[in-house]
Design a protein that fits this description.
19% helix; Protein Transport Mog1p, Chain A; 2 domains; 7-stranded antiparallel sheet; binds zinc ion; 372 residues; alpha+beta
């Protein structure tokens, strides 16, 4: 039996080889045509890449005149889109001025509402054809395919397509109870890639999501080592330099305030899982957080070991967990006065401040994508 199978395989291979040989010359004959197609390609592909790379712009809810204060999001939309607040439904309407329709509401592409609740809700007024859990920028979310029930009246002060079958994504904005939920509805004929790009770029303000800065002036004081920078003793903005590799966090500089106590706070609610001394850091502390349905660890390095919160203690967002160590002392393991702040994906503590392979940066988050 085995021999038979082997014979059949050999036979098939022989036929394939024969056909390949026969196709050789035929393929050559067609090559002029291929060359022509090749020549046409550049203009064609540049046209489509123009369409794809149509300038995106960032919309910020707080810049939209009359928008309800509950909206703190920012997200990217095609550059020619406009945004308006719809007071009657406490909504944000993102519309395409070039779309057909007599009113901006009828030109709506993405329509955003909100509700306050302890958990995801669905209304009795719609039929859910499909639903699935997802995550939008670390926040739990549910994607629904919904349709207004026939007996229910048309929804007022909303685009008419809200009364037709369409996709909606509900995002839970914080872990608190109750939480704000955003309801992000997609016009049925809107290209799904535009909608997905909107969701991938969608962020709510750190304070609304329950994240707070780990230290005052976080952004403006990251002047030397941002996330992901490749440091060598030769190129480092810090001299002399003893480290080499890709930076897994951000460094927040405080050498200009040698005599001031600089408090360091937990970025979110969580539990202290490590606190003590470690080589390269002096004092270091790690907090474990449940963010959405994932665990992440926040790491705070170069703290005064005497100032650290205890391992096992529960901390809230913004609660002080330590203070910066004194520059050039054992408190910072000889480093300048600064905070090394990193966010590790998953629940395994990894104290590495530098790594040698760029692709391993995937084990960390860019902290600035979490904290505004
Ligand atoms: Zn660092």
């Amino acid at each position: 039996m085995k021999l038979l199978v082997a014979l059949v395989v050999v036979g098939v291979l022989a036929v394939v080889a024969f056909l390949a040989l026969r196709q050789g010359p035929a393929k050559q004959e067609s090559s002029p045509q291929e060359a022509q197609i090749e020549q046409q390609k550049p203009s064609e592909s540049s046209k489509s890449s123009e369409q794809i790379s149509e300038q995106a712009k960032t919309i910020k809810a707080q810049d939209i005149s009359g928008a309800a204060g509950v909206f703190t999001f920012s997200a990217e939309v095609p550059s020619h889109w406009q945004a308006q607040a719809v007071a009657a439904t406490e909504a944000i309407n993102l519309y395409d001025p070039n779309a057909s329709g007599a009113t901006n509401l009828e030109k709506s592409q993405i329509f955003i509402r909100n509700f306050k609740a302890n958990s995801f809700l669905t209304l009795g007024t719609v039929t859910i054809h499909e639903q699935g859990d997802t995550t939008i920028n670390g926040r739990p979310a549910v994607r629904y395919d919904i349709e207004k029930k026939p007996a229910v009246a048309q929804f007022a002060n909303q685009p008419s397509w809200r009364s037709e079958r369409h996709i909606v994504t509900d995002v839970r904005v914080s872990d608190s109870n109750p939480s704000i939920f955003y309801v992000i509805a997609k016009r049925p004929d809107l290209d799904d890639t535009v909608y997905r790009h909107f969701l991938e770029s969608f962020k709510v303000s750190a304070s609304q999501a329950g994240f707070t800065e780990p230290i005052d002036e976080l952004r403006s004081r990251i002047t030397k080592k941002p996330f992901g920078i490749f440091i060598t003793p030769e190129n480092s903005p810090v001299q002399p330099e003893r480290f080499r590799g890709y930076h897994t966090g951000v460094d927040v500089e405080y050498t200009d305030k040698p005599d001031v106590d600089i408090p360091v706070r937990s970025i979110a609610a969580g539990q202290v899982v490590q606190a003590g001394r470690a080589a390269g850091y002096g004092g270091v502390l790690v907090v474990s957080h449940k963010i959405g349905d994932e665990t992440k660890l926040s790491l705070y390095g170069h703290l005064d070991p005497a100032s650290l919160a205890k391992v096992g203690s529960e901390v809230s967002a913004g609660q002080q967990i330590g203070a910066l160590g004194e520059g050039g002392s054992a408190e910072t393991d000889g480093e300048r006065k600064h905070l090394h702040f990193g966010i590790i994906k998953g629940q395994t503590v990894n104290l590495k401040g530098y790594i040698q392979n760029k692709q391993d940066l995937i084990g960390w988050e860019d902290p600035l994508s979490f904290i505004e």
